[in-house]
Amino acid sequence: MNPKLSLLQPYPFERLRQLFAGVTPNPAYRAISLGIGEPKHATPQMLKDALAAALDTGLAGYPATAGEPALREACAAWLQRRYGVTVSPANQVLPVNGSREALFAFAQTVLDPTQAGATLVFPNPFYQIYEGAALLGGAQPYYVPSVPSRNFAVDWDSVPEDVWARTQLIFVCSPGNPTGAVMPLDEWAKLFELSDRHGFVIASDECYSEIYFRDEPPLGGLEAAVKLGRTDFKNLMMFTSLSKRSNVPGLRSGFVAGDAALIKAFLLYRTYHGGAMSPAVQAASVAAWGDEDHVIDNRRQYREKFAQVTPLLASVMEVALPDAAFYLWAGVPEAFNHRIPGLSADEAFARELLAQYNVTVLPGSYLAREAQGVNPGRGRVRMALVAEPAECLEAAGRIVEFLSPRA
């Protein structure tokens, strides 16, 4: 067996199952989960129609790993409409089976474990695929903390110069999971300068880009590059997906775009890896990337939901409307510190909330690692507001009751 597999840590939801072992939720309440970031809004009918229409002919042959020209052109056209970015559909776009597998596979393409101290840098807290990609790619993970006082901006300045010197790849997540923070242009400029100086590749995970709460859409990595005159996208790759944008996590469809040299290498890797997308899924994806009406409606639903739930929870917890994404990153009251022996405050909060009110939230410490002496997720919980508004409001009401002083 690959000995690197033993380095992997349990996924957050496995740890959550262990935390809840022996807990009997209050039977007076129906179960509501805010734990998993799985979109629950309706899948657009036009997308389902396109998928069904393609099934008759779309399963008869082996698909090309590079995807059909129509899909690459649809992705490039969307980048132009959304970001004002021009890319070549032929050599700067590649369809992938969702951003999760692509992020992992891209790391295996880029990392060179024969180089002493090979390092992969990413935010802390983080999406656990980043860590797994580093470990299985033979690199050392380096965890960069998010700073609450700066709206959870990642503290890139805290990374020592000797770490940057051995960095081969950096994962950026903007809008962030779990904080929803969006990286501004000056931080992109900082990372580009570091990339030029040290030669590392930047992978920009942007799967939450279309769920946002401000008037201005979140800045993307390719868009930032163009604004800074970097139109060749050197050492830059962006990753996006239809899962959140179009409510089709089961479709497993997204694309990557950027540096043509990186696309060429990634295509070679994926040809051997077996990363081709089904022609039927490609046809549905063309329809999805070409339509914005369902995306606007999806964003409206999230905005209305967050506008109702956030102030309700803010009356009893430290929580605020994020820049983007569909999570609330909430601080747990200090009363939960040392509440249950052996458990952190966020674990105690999650366990007691399930037991008393049958609501599931994810402890923030499960989404981060202790680094430089601190776990930046400790004392917080992530709430995924993916269900219908009534269910999210009911869950929020129970949390308010849970935290309100007893008479």
From TrEMBL:
Pfam families registered for this protein in UniProt: Aminotran_1_2
Entry's Gene Ontology BP terms: lysine biosynthetic process via diaminopimelate
Swiss-Prot/TrEMBL keywords: Aminotransferase, Transferase
InterPro entries: Aminotransferase_I/II_large (IPR004839), DapC_beta/gammaproteobac (IPR019878), LL-DAP_aminotransferase (IPR050881), PyrdxlP-dep_Trfase (IPR015424), PyrdxlP-dep_Trfase_major (IPR015421), PyrdxlP-dep_Trfase_small (IPR015422)
EC number: 2.6.1.17
Signal peptide: none
Enzyme class label: transferase
Family annotation (CDD domains): AAT_like
Keyword set includes Transferase: yes
GO molecular function per UniProt: pyridoxal phosphate binding; succinyldiaminopimelate transaminase activity
Domain Aminotransferase class I/classII large: start-end pairs: 32-398
Gene3D superfamilies from the UniProt entry: Aspartate Aminotransferase, domain 1, Type I PLP-dependent aspartate aminotransferase-like (Major domain)
Cofactor list: pyridoxal 5'-phosphate
NCBIfam families in the record: DapC_gpp
Protein known as: Succinyldiaminopimelate transaminase
The species this protein was found in: Hydrogenophaga aromaticivorans
